[in-house]
Amino acid sequence: MSRDTDGLQLTADAYRTIQVRDGHQPEFAQAAYEVLESLEPALKRHPEYLRSGVLERLCEPERQIIFRVPWTDDTGAVRVNRGFRVEFNSALGPYKGGLRFHPSVNIGVIKFLGFEQIFKNALTGLPLGGGKGGSDFDPKGKSDAEIMRFCQSFMTELHRHLGEYTDVPAGDIGVGRREIGYLFGQYKRITNRYESGVLTGKGLNWGGSQVRTEATGYGTVYFVDQMLRARGEQIDGRRVVVSGSGNVAIYAARKVHELGGTVVAMSDSEGYVVDEEGLDIEAVRELKEDRGGRVKDYAEEHPRARFVDNGSIWDVPCAVALPCATQNELDDEAATTLVRNGVVAIGEGANMPTTPGAVKVFQDAGVLFGPGKAANAGGVATSGLEMQQNASRDSWHFDYTDTRLSQIMADIHDSVREMAEGYGAPDNYVLGANIAGFTKVADTMLDLGVI
Ligand code: NDP
């Protein structure tokens, strides 16, 4: 981080404070560094942000909640997990961001996700603050009854911090429609109120929105298509690799297919499956969503496909790569391989899946790079649309909601590109997204005073 003027010294100071206070939270420090570094040109142009302490306030969550989640497993043994909710910034609206259930969850991971969420939510143009939560609970191998008891216990504590005007969680890794159902049921039971707007990602019968399931994956592909179109290209006819095979990955793959691209590889944490002529995306969806299978089962059921145990999916040559699994899954070595194999565009469906070194490899090679806070904002944007429908007790049709989503993604693309152009770097979507998101939040924080 540069230190050549007073303003930039302050940027460096803000990062140093994070290293001292939160150095033991590497994911959060990484996310903060990436944002602070790209804000330097904006801070140079707008010293008022530095004088008002906006940077320091943005990097410190408004509230961090850590709680015990006791539950009983099917053998009758009592188990204890740790629950988290980081209410990071509410300048633009109620805290909004998903819940992640995964053994890797800790306060640093939740802080990194909540920090990213602030800027992502600002980019959607909707009135949403930033937050994130979850637990180190591992849903894998648990029975349905165990998942329900865990969700009920989790919500028994969390409910006191939520509300449609306060904090509105959604799903993330390990939290899908089923878990949101158990969480919403418990919230309703404890509060004796049918507050649909307190959670998003709900089922269609009980306040959910059309397109929410598809939104993050679809939105990522709409965004990548926009980036390509800005260069006179498109997804149609392109070979695409999608990592992961969860919610984001499946619907990203489906939209690629609908736009005429060919998805040749997908993965899970055990390995990846390749079919040079294109995977059958509906078969992947059915295998994962309806049967709870693994991608290696796909290879067993489809003779044209082969399963690669533990290899890197980024070794598969492609024109477009969509990392849709988890953080730091694409490093500089993988990026170098992708560039050598002719990749032209990357869209981060997951949050921070690309390491800083890999981002640099792509940018140096002139590869279009859509950062997660812009490219995967379609999920939270559609959650915002779900909140609008709940507030007006309305429900919109699929096509109307999908049109709203694709318009929001086009608007995000244009505002990010315009901001990057204003700083003389039209293809630098990282710079554009960070400065556009930051400016909106920072201007609002200035309006609201030192709180
Ligand atoms: P899911 O739990 O539905 O799917 C995650 C997928 O990633 C699974 O296929 C999982 O495989 C795979 N995966 C996890 N770790 C690895 C790894 N180390 N290597 C390869 N594959 C791995 O989660 P989502 O699809 O909801 O979320 C994926 C990412 O997208 C996360 O970063 C999330 O924060 C982000 N995101 C999600 C949004 C949403 O609306 N759902 C919104 C915006 C961002 P396995 O089954 O083996 O664990």
TrEMBL record:
Gene Ontology molecular function, alphabetical: glutamate dehydrogenase (NADP+) activity; nucleotide binding
Residues of the site described as Important for catalysis: D172
Residues the record lists as binding NAD(+): T216, N247
Keywords associated with the record: NAD, Nucleotide-binding, Oxidoreductase
SMART domains: ELFV_dehydrog (SM00839)
Superkingdom, taxonomy of origin: Bacteria
Cited PROSITE patterns: GLFV_DEHYDROGENASE
Catalytic-site annotation from UniProt: K132 (proton donor)
List of residues binding substrate: K96, Q117, K120, G171, S383
GO annotation (BP), single: glutamate biosynthetic process
Domain (Glutamate/phenylalanine/leucine/valine/L-tryptophan dehydrogenase C-terminal): residue spans on this chain: 209-449
GO cellular component: cytosol
Record family assignment: Belongs to the Glu/Leu/Phe/Val dehydrogenases family.
Subunit structure: Homohexamer.
Matching PANTHER family: NADP-SPECIFIC GLUTAMATE DEHYDROGENASE 1-RELATED (PTHR43571:SF1)
NCBIfam families named among the record's database cross-references: PRK09414.1
Protein name as it appears in the record: Glutamate dehydrogenase
Origin species: Saccharopolyspora rhizosphaerae
